[in-house]
Amino acid sequence: MSNMAKSSIVIGLVVLVGVVLALKGRRSSCPFLCNQAPAGQVVAPAASEQAEDASASAGGVADASVAEGSAVADGTAGDASGVAGGGAASLPRLVDLGASTCIPCRMMEPILESLRQEYAGRLQVEFYDIRQEKEALSRFKVRVIPTQIFYDGQGQELWRHEGFLGKEAILAKWQELGVELGSASGQP
């Protein structure tokens, strides 16, 4: 079975789970069902979500929306004009933005951890929970979650993807972008 077919099956399952949750009256953070705002607009959370998560409603930003005018404490820009984590400026960087309430985001967690461990010293993997770090929405110009952003060693954005992205697809994209990560076992 091809990677594209596997990805399609996973996406289909994610959509199905999101529909089931929506039908049960729960608000899903799935990027296929959540409130999406046109670029530059902020979407207020649903009343039920405000009661469940006061921190999300305090900023007035719902999953899959864009907030403008925020800055992150370390001062790096959303266009990656700087590289977070100091000392890793020569490493390519994968930034994933999501939330603990987002089903596809939770599916990404073991993939990111695996990449972090298997490519330690060759790839910097970062995760931002947009509910905890709301400024990351504007810093990285996020429209939906999960969003993965690929940066080269100089901090230039090479590519971004919205939605779930499997490990094989991530590694294939790095290769397509001309970034050599070496083998997963730590051998160059």
Account of the 3D structure:
The protein has one domain (3-176): Glutaredoxin (3-Layer(aba) Sandwich). The protein is an alpha+beta fold and 188 residues long. Strand 3 (147-151) and strand 4 (157-162) form a beta hairpin. The protein has helices at residues 3-23, 47-52, 54-58, 103-118, 135-139, 167-176, and strands spanning 93-98, 124-129, 147-151, 157-162.
The coarse silhouette is globular
Strand adjacency order, main sheet: 2-1-3-4
Backbone structural class:
alpha+beta
**Helix count, per DSSP?**
6
* CATH topology-level name: Glutaredoxin
The fourth-level CATH homologous superfamily is Glutaredoxin
What's the pLDDT, averaged over the residues?
Answer: 71
**Through-space gap between termini:** 28 Å
**Runs with pLDDT <50, length 5+?**
25-87
Summarize the structure.
The chain has 188 residues and is of the alpha+beta class. It has 6 helices and 4 strands; from the N terminus they run αααβαβαββα.
